[in-house]
UniProtKB/TrEMBL annotation:
Family of the protein in this entry: Belongs to the glycosyl hydrolase 13 family.
Protein name: Alpha-amylase
The organism of origin for this protein: Terriglobus roseus
Residues holding Ca(2+) 1: 107
Compositionally biased spans, kind Basic and acidic residues: 412-421
Segments for region (Disordered): 412-435
Length: 446
């Protein structure tokens, strides 16, 4: 019963001629996205801190505590705005029944003011930082190699950026203060951690378990999702490592599923039985998976065909689905007031996509699954048809005998209205979907 919006894409403020105004622009959209609108429950915002140069996305952090109020690195505001505008946006998010998720880039820095020699190896690096906020000035010992960890024992380096050594008490104290600012002062509700393979799971465990003191909740635990861009085994190992350190809800982006969905959308005759092999995060750990079709990092690898097939899957199956701003708005896949877009699928997700998941049928061209329903959600039958030239379906045995089903969301290369279906006394019924399309059927209890 939850769907997240990724509230940005790469160079979004530049592309839409809204440099320094993105927070205000997003705020305008929140009422239509929130509880009284389509029903998104949270929005993930881009990095909030000053980057190394004007117009950057914030994944090159220079001053963690400059939220757009100090003139440095060529600008006063960040690419997205200033602190007052961010606070106003978060207030609007909460007023509309949504949570705000902060993007945490804590493994690397950029834009140092001076180059200096690291005495441990004699190499010169750009590691002298004198931020105008006055908080977290740093030098070579805050980065690898450091006296606290001469050799990087955990994590990978990101590009050529200086890589923070979290074992330095000064560094992890600054990260605590930054996390506290985000949750307590700015009133965010959770974290998305960037490039988590770049630092130890213990760091996320510490930040997740910290007893944040929100005004209305003195024992607040933030939602946490990590970007571990790898295969299923690595992601499961990371989730296991973090889970041993915290009682908080920890999730990971489901990259294995995303690449399967890209193949579903972009590869004709892709074998849909690959969706049943159990290698996705959501298949193995449904409560620890954030599922998605595209995001800002997929610039060179976007899904380019039949993208609604991917959205139909993540919004009906297990996991916490995340919708990409660019798909929803720029590529106009919301398709409001129709049964053929993301809006209809979000509404189907809230009303029907609850309960146990069960695959009822899978062959190379046809996938049918069931959500068993809960006290608040009716359940559904989901049909995905990979054939490019004809409607396709088959008879399956559902959990609902003698029940009428209505189509609530569908799309494909033929947008004819699907017929209502019904099951017999044993729960058997035939459920079809359009060519290169999908259909979501909801049971009607009369």
């Amino acid at each position: 019963m939850a769907v997240m919006m990724q509230g940005f894409y790469w160079d979004c403020a530049k592309e839409e001629n809204r440099l320094g105004e993105w927070w205000n622009y997003v705020a305008e959209k929140i009422p239509s996205l929130g509880k009284q609108g389509i029903g998104f429950d949270a929005i993930w915002l881009p990095p909030i801190s000053k980057g190394a140069s004007p117009g950057t996305m914030g994944y090159d952090p220079y001053d963690y505590f400059d939220l757009g109020d100090f003139e440095q690195k060529g600008s006063v505001k960040t690419s997205f705005g200033n602190r007052a505008e961010l606070e106003s946006l978060i207030k609007t998010i909460h007023e509309n029944g949504m949570g705000a998720i902060a993007d945490m880039v804590i493994n690397h820095n950029s834009g140092a003011d001076e180059e200096e020699e690291n005495p441990l190896d004699g190499q010169k690096r750009w590691t002298k930082f004198n931020p105008k906020s006055g908080k977290f000035p740093r030098n070579w010992d805050c980065f690898h190699p450091s006296r606290y960890e001469k050799v990087m024992l955990e994590g990978e380096q990101f590009a050529g950026f200086p890589h923070l050594c979290h074992r330095n008490p000064k560094v992890y104290a600054a990260m605590y203060e930054y996390a506290r600012l985000i949750i307590e002062d700015l009133d965010f509700d959770g974290f998305r951690f960037d490039f988590v393979k770049g630092f130890g799971a213990w760091m996320i465990g510490l930040l997740a378990k910290y007893q944040y003191q929100k005004k209305d909740n003195p024992n607040f635990s933030p939602f946490v999702v990590g970007e571990y861009w790898s295969g299923p085994d690595d992601i499961h190992d990371w989730l296991d490592a973090v889970s041993t350190l915290t009682d908080s809800q920890i999730a990971a982006f489901d990259f294995p599923l995303r690449y399967k969905l890209k193949d579903v959308c972009d590869t004709l005759n892709y074998d849909l039985r690959n969706l049943t092999d159990g290698t996705s995060v959501s298949a193995a750990r449904p409560f620890n998976a954030v599922t998605f079709v595209d995001n800002h990092d997929m610039n060179d690898n976007f899904v380019t065909n039949d993208k609604m097939l991917g959205y139909s899957f993540i919004l009906t199956q297990d996991g916490y689905p995340c919708v990409f701003w660019r798909d929803y708005y720029n590529y106009e896949l919301a398709r409001p007031n129709t049964p053929n877009g993301i809006d209809a699928l979000v509404q189907a997700h809230h009303k029907h996509a609850g309960g146990e998941s069960c695959i009822l049928h899978a062959d190379p061209d046809l996938y049918i699954s069931q959500r068993g329903g809960t006290e608040d959600q009716s359940g559904l039958i989901y049909v995905l048809n990979n054939l490019g030239n004809q409607w396709s379906g088959t008879t399956v045995q559902t959990k609902w005998p003698n029940t009428r089903f209505i189509p609530v969301a569908w799309d494909g290369h033929d947008q004819a209205h699907p017929d209502e279906r019904s099951t017999d006394e044993e729960g058997n019924g035939e459920f079809p979907a359009p060519p290169r399309g999908y259909c979501v059927y909801a049971p009607i209890f009369e």
